[in-house]
Automatic annotation (TrEMBL):
Entry keywords, A to Z: Membrane, Transmembrane, Transmembrane helix
Natural source organism: Dyadobacter pollutisoli
Protein's UniProt name: Mechanosensitive ion channel protein MscS
Transmembrane in keyword set: yes
Domain of life: Bacteria
Segments passing through the bilayer: 7-33, 53-76, 97-116, 122-138, 159-178, 198-219, 240-259, 265-282, 294-313, 356-377
Amino acid sequence: MKASLKVFYLLCTFAGIVFVPYLGAWICFDGHFEHTYFQYPPLIAPVKPGFSLPIFVGVAIIFGIIALVYLVPSLFGFKKVKALPLNEPKNGKFPTWFWAGLLMWGGTLLVLWGKFSEPRWIIMWADLPLFWGFALMMDGWVYKRTGGTSIISRSAQEMIAIGVASVSGWLIFEYLNFFVDDNWIYPAGELIPDNQFTIYAVVGSAGLMPLAFEWYALFITFDGLKNRFADGPKLTMPPWLGNLLLIISFILLFFIAFYPDTLFTLLWVIPLLVISIVLEKLEIWTPFNLVRSGNWSSVLLFALAYLVQGFLLEFWNYFSATHENGQIITQTPAYWAYSVPYINVYHVFEMPALGLMGYLPFGIYCIIWWIVFAYLLNIPSQFTSAKHLE
């Protein structure tokens, strides 16, 4: 298949993800949306259904099974792979950008957690130094462990490009959030004008995906972790199943505005599922190709990367506000909170405990989105083939 035709199919896929839920919502509301339906940032969410024990137990079981895959992979057919000696650093020194990142991240966190009202420019744009500072620290850690090899040391331009890709990759979720009646909101978003918040969201979201790649890069420096999932079940998706899942996914996207409380979890699954299947059909490499030979390392470690980073994001976010009598008091416009149906109990900071599971598919989505972005713009990348695991 010609590259130009592949590009066309990919663009059609993105158009479908964007326009199908809008079409469904337009029909659902007979073309008359409430004035707050597409409000950005969402400040208040509609009332959601309360706790449901059967749904909570069902989701908890799924989360438990996933946890067992990581903790006891042999239960799922993974075999032990002889680990090679760890890559020890040659000089044991952190690079310059590690210390720059520590200053950016630590200084920003100090301002946020100290509840300071100044300097306003840090408070108003906190996500930028917070996310990128931590990414620089992580990259420096990888550089130290490998004796001088990291994403930035190999190609700083690639890290910047991943940041650019992160903007469009994340804003898809901000868009789909409208159709599930705002699973997350920004209760302090009114601290700045809406148009300024949008700029803030675009700039800040550039740091989200690089964090996934840095955690992943760190994970594969540990041979025991890298090889833990390298010899597992060999799975191949037959073409008919891919076609069926594509059809079902777009049907669910169409009806997501009709049943936002029932289908709210699909927000984190469908973009990953649809794009991955299309890439498979276009014969563009993804980490799922390795699953055919039983190597689940990339898939499971990218998922784990954002489960870890997601916990940290919730941690940083929660303590940037004061919580008094159920009220959130913060100077940070990007502070987020959640409003989800059925499982909104046992919180890990602001996040319902079972909601952390959404970070798993998002971690895999990060590498899939980057592969698409790199392919469309013909950007060389170490992550668009299995060579980065060698």
